Amino acid sequence: MNSSIMKKSMYFFILPALIFYLLFWIFPILKIFQYSVTDYNGFVQEFNYVGFKNYSELFKEGVMTSSIVNTLIYTFIVVILGNVISLGLALMLNMKIRAKGIYRSLAYVPTLFSAIVVGFIWSYVYMPDQGLIDSVLQAIGFKGIQTNFLGQYSTALYAIILVDVWKNIGTATIIYLAGLQTVPNELLEAGRIDGCSAWKLTRFVKIPLLAASITINITLSIISGLKAFDFPFIMTNGGPGTATNTLIFKVYKLAFNEQLFGKASALGVVSFSIIILVTGIFVIYLNKKEVSA
Amino acid sequence: MKKKEILKSTLIHVGIISFLLLNLLPLIISFSSSLRSPNNMTSPLNLFNEFSLVSYQNAFSRMHFPMAFLNSIILTGVSVTIVVIFTAMAAYPLARIDSKFSKFVYLFFLGGLVVPGQMVIIPIVQIIKALHIPSSQFTPILMFVTCSIPFSTFLFTGFIKSSVPVEIEEAAYIDGAGLFRRFWTLVFPLILPATVSVIITQGIWIWNDYFFNLIFITKSSQSPLPLAMLGFLGDKENPTQWNTLFAACFLSAIPLVIAFGALQKYFIGGLASGSVKG
Hints:
Chain A is mainly alpha-helical. Chain A is 71% helix and 0% strand. In chain A, helix 1 (15-35) packs across helix 13 (261-292), helix 4 packs across helix 7 and helix 10 runs antiparallel to helix 13.
C-alpha cells in the first residue's frame, strides 16, 4: 500500500509532538509510579522508599473504596443519562421542522461556558432557601422541604453529576445529529413504504446506523466521567464528608492540600489502572460486537 | 391528514421548546440577575425587573477584565497555533506510511486521551525545573499543547487518510518538491476542515481551562479569564454578591458566545466532522 514517494524520513515530522508528549505526558506518569512507593512530600527533594505502605493506608482508611465507588457511580450516570437525553434531543431536532438551526444552537450554548462559571451558576440553583430550585418550590407553594442538595450526604454526588450531564448535552447532541445526517433517506422512505411506524424506523433503522456516533459519545463520556474533577473542585470540595470525592479530585487534594505526594501518586496509579481497565473492557466489547454484527 | 401533520409538528415544537427552556433556565435567571444593580435583592425569579450595568462595572473592574481577556487571547492563540502545527505534522507520516511503527505511534498518542491532567501535574513542576524551563505565565502553554496532542493527532490522521489522495503529491514529487514543501503547500491547505475542527475543539477547552493556569500562574496581572473568575469562589454562597458574581460569569462567557454566534457554521461543522471522519 505504501507509495514509493513516502520516504522513511517523513517520520521526522512526528518529532515535535512526540517530544512534548513524552516529556510532559508519558514521563510524568512513570514518575507517578515511582512516587507511589515513596514518602515524597513535594518540597524536600529527598525521599525514602516505603514499599506499598501508601497503597495499604489508602485502602485501610477507606479512601480508595469510597473514591472508586463515587467515580463509578458518576461515570455510569453520566454515560446513561447524558446519552439518552442527547440522543432523544438529536432525534427531535432531526425532524422536518422549522427553526431547527436556532434550537440546535440554543442546545449547544451551555457547552460554551467554562466549568467555573457553570459551577457558580449551579451552586445558585441548588442553594437552600434563596436558590433557584427552592425559590420555585416556594413560589408554587411547597414550603419547608429539605432542599440542601449539595450539603446532604445522600444527594450531593447526584447533584454534581446532573451539572456534568447538563454541560455536555450540547456536544453529544451535535455528534448524534451529525451521525443522523448520514442515514440515507432512501432507506427511511423504503421503511415508510413497507409500513414501519416512526418508532420502528428509529429503533431498527436510525439507531443501528448511529452505531459509530454512539460509540464515540459513550467512549468520550466514559473517559470524562472517570476523570471527573471540575464540579467536586468548584462546587463541593469533595464534601460533605467524602460524598463527592472522585478519584482524580482526591488525588489532587492529597497532593496539593495535604502535601502527601507519595500517597496522591499511589491513588493516581489506582485511578490510572481503573481508567485503563474500564475503557479497555468497553473498547474490546465494542470491537467484538462490531465483528459479530 | 393535513391537520394531523400540523398537530404533530406543533407537539414537537412544544416538546423542544419546553426542554430548552428548562435546560436554559439557570442561564436565563442568572443573566437577568446580572442586569440588576448589586443591592437589588428581590427574588431572582422576578425576571428582568431592572436593567442596570452597575454589577457589570463592578465585575469588570474586580476581574481586571481587559487584562484577563488579553491574557486569555494570548494563551489560547499561542497554544492552538502550536497544536495545529505540531499535530498536523505528526499526523502526516502516520496517515501516509502503513507500517507497524506508524500504527504503534498512532495508538500511543491516542492512548493519552485516558490520562487525566490533574494526575500528570503532580511531578510536572519538578520536571519543568529539572529541564531549566523558566516558570512564567506562558508555562501553561506547554500543558495545553501536550494535552491537545492525542485528540488533534487522531483527527488530522483520520482526515488525511480519508480526504487527501496520495496522487496529488506524486506530480509535485516528480517536479522535485521536497517533503516540507509538499506538506505545507499541498497537504496542509487541503486539510483545512480538520484544522478548523482542531482550532474549535481545542480552542474551547483551552480558553475555558482554569486548572493548568491555577498551577503555574501566581500573579493576578497574568491571569486569564477563568482564573480571574476563581477569585469569586467565596461569593457563590453569599446571596448579597450574586448580582456581581453573575455579571462576572457572563462577562467571562461573552467572548466565546459571540465567537459562536458569528462562526456557528464552523463550530457545529467542526465538531461534527471531527466525530464523523475520525
